[in-house]
Amino acid sequence: MIGWRSALGAFFCLLVVVVAPSAVAEAPPTKTAGAATPSAAVAKPPAGISPQYRLQPGDVITINVWKEKDLESDALVRPDGGLSFPLVGDVMAAGHTIEEVRVTLVQRLRPYIPDPVVTVAIKSIGGNHVYVIGKVQRPGEFTFSQPLDVMQALTLAGGTTPFASLNDIVILRRQNGGAEHVLHFHYGDVARGKSLEQNVILESGDTVVVP
């Protein structure tokens, strides 16, 4: 009886040794979450900011290069329109979208990193400003991240006062060469749906004067 039990026990031990490796070999490979390389880089505008928003001096963007901890930082758009980033050096950012800046960074990083995956996001808007002065309820400086026309700027300033000369409003715009250009705005015409071309999209640095 003892010999029979010993033989049976030996048989089951042999069966486990033979079958177990086979079961392990046939088990499907387990995928590790997040192990795949990102297929595309990303440019992320914050909620409420158009992807077509063009950077201005004073804006801050966040730049991340996948799997490169030393290449993660915030970058300020300087007054000259450029920004600095390790390995890349200076990049002209002002007047460009974050997607355009991302593409430039990828191109500049390729000599150092094969197929770099770059993420660019706007951290803060500090560069787009217009000024509304004169006979308005709340004169001052206003920051904007979406296209802004003259009527909208007047609304941000709380509207005009009762004594404002509505048909003598002007927009002062500094050109690249430094010369100042004057645009005229007749509130009465625009309010009646006429001469709507006067309701121009403002540029950063424009000053709306309400006499």
**Proportion of residues in helical segments:** 10-25%
Question: What is the CATH domain class of the largest domain?
Answer: Alpha Beta
From the N-terminal CA to the C-terminal CA, the straight-line distance is 116 Å
Q: Bin the strand percentage.
A: 25-35%
Q: Quick one: biggest sheet?
A: 5 strands, mixed
Tell me the domain tally: 2
Can you tell me the CATH topology of the largest domain?
A: wza like fold
Could you name the CATH homologous superfamily of the largest domain?
wza like domain
Arithmetic mean of pLDDT:
82
Global outline:
elongated
- Spans of at least 5 consecutive residues whose pLDDT stays below 50 are 10-36
Structural class: alpha+beta
Strand order of the largest sheet: 8-7-11-9-10
CATH architecture of the largest domain: 2-Layer Sandwich
Gyration radius, in Å: 32 Å
What order do the helices and strands follow? HEEEEEHEEEHEEHE
Number of helices, counting only DSSP H or I runs of 4 residues or more: 4
Features:
single chain, 211 residues, alpha+beta, wza like fold, 2 domains, 11 strands, 23% helix
Q: Care to give the gist of this entry?
A:
The protein is built from 4 helices and 11 strands; from the N terminus they run αβββββαβββαββαβ. With 211 residues, it is α+β, with helices and mostly antiparallel strands. Mean pLDDT is 82; it is low at 10-36.
